[in-house]
Design goal:
Strand content: 25-35%
GO molecular function, one term: ATP hydrolysis activity
CATH class of the largest domain: Alpha Beta
CATH topology of the largest domain: Rossmann fold
Keywords: ATP-binding, Nucleotide-binding, Repeat, Transport
Shape: globular
Protein name: D-xylose ABC transporter ATP-binding protein
Order of helices and strands: EEEHEEHEHEEHHEHEHEEHEEHEE
Radius of gyration: 23 Å
Number of domains: 2
InterPro entries: AAA+_ATPase, ABC_carbohydrate_import_ATPase, ABC_transporter-like_ATP-bd, P-loop_NTPase
Helix content: 25-40%
CATH architecture of the largest domain: 3-Layer(aba) Sandwich
Pfam family, one: ABC_tran
CATH superfamily of the largest domain: P-loop containing nucleotide triphosphate hydrolases
Length: 327
């Protein structure tokens, strides 16, 4: 297989942190690679170097056999054929979906100093069709959900037709059925000989879609785990990845919860809590509990905590701490 990208002894140091330490590996055409590691392993730093957002302290990047210095994202996209769908969205809220998709190509839609919005919207709808999204492209980007924003970023990257496409935690805000659709698109891109790098903290997703998994630990490259053999137990592969990530087999597992008994003492009680962000929230938290507050991004988790802390006003409902109502 033809090697399209080679990372050779890349290092990056920040004050007090060695983010990457002589990282080396090569990627081939027509494969989906997972890039995994615990928080602080160096994944984001490596991606930002590949996109020209950071410059390495030492080492080389070789794209299609040629050594390159990736100075900025435009160089990465136009000269190296590398693009990234980041978890943090870069859409401009006040601009329409169509304008955001073609933000770096708007000049081609100008005729006598005026944008041909009809053509722009037609092309935008075509771009969204590639990610199975059908919506009004004239809507401002600030009015759509986090999941829709991720798909629009994906559509924008696909429209640039990169040879190497990186997914930086892109599926974090997507529902499971949409994730399956994204994986189908990724497999189609693989058939077209594209090289994909998929970053996720969800190992199940990584194992489901990736051919090989690259592992980073504390800025060091720990090796590649093969995920292409169908006769290998997925649990064995998972344990191998976890071992490389953490240095121990049970590194990502919580201890078993045996013989748990709930305290009868309620520490925090919330009843019918409502405001412009929340609708009739009811919750009781008991002494000694560890409580998870889950949901897709933007579903009200931070608003609930800010309301409990008194940083946002409540319109109705009560909040009691140790039985005493908070004003």
């Amino acid at each position: 297989m033809e090697e399209v990208l080679k990372i050779d002894s890349i290092s990056k140091h920040f004050p007090g942190v060695q983010a990457l330490n002589k990282v080396s590996f090569g990627l081939e055409k027509g494969k989906i690679y997972g890039l995994v590691g615990e928080n602080g392993a160096g994944k984001s730093t490596l991606v930002k170097i590949l996109m020209g957002l950071y410059q390495p302290d030492s080492g080389e990047i070789i794209v299609k056999g040629k050594k390159v210095t990736i100075s900025d994202p435009t160089f990465a996209r136009e000269k190296c054929g590398i693009d990234t769908v980041f978890q943090e969205h870069s859409l401009i809220p006040q601009m329409s979906i169509a304008e955001n998709i073609f933000l770096d190509k708007l000049e081609k839609y100008y005729t006598n100093g005026v944008i041909n919005y009809r053509k722009l919207r037609e092309d935008a709808k075509r771009a969204l069709k590639a990610v199975n999204l059908d919506m009004d492209v004239s809507l401002p980007a600030g009015e759509i959900s986090e999941g829709e924003k991720s798909l629009i970023e994906f559509a924008r990257s696909l429209n640039r037709d990169p040879d190497i496409l990186i997914f930086d935690e892109m599926t974090a805000s997507l529902e499971s059925n949409i994730v399956r659709e994204v994986f189908d698109i990724m497999r189609d891109l693989k058939k077209k000989n594209k090289t994909l790098i998929f970053i996720s903290h969800r190992l199940k997703e990584v194992l489901r879609v990736c051919d090989e998994i690259l592992v980073l630990k504390d800025g060091n490259f720990q090796g590649i785990v093969d995920n292409q053999r169908k006769d290998t137990n997925p649990e064995i592969i998972r344990e191998k990845i976890i071992n490389k990530m953490t240095g121990r087999k049970t590194g990502l597992l919580f201890p078993p919860k045996n013989k748990l008994e709930r305290s009868t003492e309620v520490v925090l009680s919330i009843s019918n809590l409502s405001n412009q962000y929340l609708k009739k929230i009811n919750l009781e938290i008991y002494k000694g509990e560890i409580v998870a507050l889950a949901g897709l991004r933007g579903q009200g988790q931070s608003k609930l905590l800010r309301t409990i802390a008194g940083l946002l006003p409540k319109n109705e409902g009560t909040i009691k701490l140790f039985g005493k109502e908070l004003i």
